[in-house]
Amino acid sequence: MTIIADATSLILLAKISILETFANRNDIVTSELVYKEVIKGKEKGRMDSMLTEKLVQENKLKVKTPNNDTKTSIEKLLNLKFGELEVVSLAHKTKSTILSDDKKCINAAKALSIDFMTSLDVIIALHRKNAITKEKAIESIDELESYGWYSKELIKIYRGKIK
Amino acid sequence: MMKNVSVRLKEDFMKEAEKLAKLKAIDKSAIIREALEKGFSEVKLEIALDRFSKGKASTSEAAKIADISMGEMMDELVKRGLKQKITKEDLERSLERALKVVK
Q1: What's the whole-model pTM score?
Q2: In what order do the strands lie in the sheet with A97-99?
Q3: Best of A39, A89, A154, A157 to disrupt the B interface by mutation (most B CBs within 10 Å)?
Q4: Hey, what CATH class is A2-118 in?
Q5: What was the ipTM of the complex prediction?
Q6: How far apart are CA A158 and CA B17, in angstroms?
Q7: Angle ∠(A12,A22,B71) on CA atoms, nearest 5
Q8: Which residues does chain B have within 8 Å of residue A111's beta carbon, measured at their own beta carbons?
Q9: How many domains does chain B fold into?
Q10: Which among A85, A161, B20, B80 would be 20 to 30 A from A117, CA to CA?
């Protein structure tokens, strides 16, 4: 099943070093604009930008452009813009799952009844599918905690989900 | 291409500009232009962060306003303690879905 990833998730998963494992095992797609948003960091030597570019070159991360009509109607309905608009449009059209760590994108997915998940869910799912060890899952959650993207409450809940 | 613009600046600012221009051996207008350009990046970032914190901009919208990459925007947000307002209620069924989809 295809997973449509936005920039926040590509960057967070790259930061905790599980993006490659995730992309190797799953059908991951992102949008043209999201790709550009992430790649912009290459000028400053960002690791997340370079890894994302490498995955696209290796065809482990596919880049697609959403249909303009879908984009226009979603933009009017939800006032979404840029990368998030493209991700939601792609997922809506193809009935795929969204991978996002952005509140506005998650709200849009909920409003359109599109399935979604976050990087926190990816860590737990990869661990339960034996793609990463328990130690790696704990380390990944710890890294997300020290980065500070998620509240301590959510980090605690997801740490508790590691079996 | 450069355009001319008239701006009223405080006397203290002008004195500082003159002093710095001498130290850098460049003309006064060049040092003011440099200060404006650097300050403009700060202003763009401040506006972006303000819109994000009020829920008016997503992460990518904020990055676009500040004219920086998504990764840099995310770093700026966490540096200022601006967390995503994602709640446990938002993620009630997300793990269940991930377990079905992720291989």
Answers
A1: 0.91
A2: A61-64, A27-31, A2-5, A97-99, A116-117
A3: A154
A4: alpha beta
A5: 0.92
A6: 53
A7: 20
A8: none
A9: 1
A10: B80
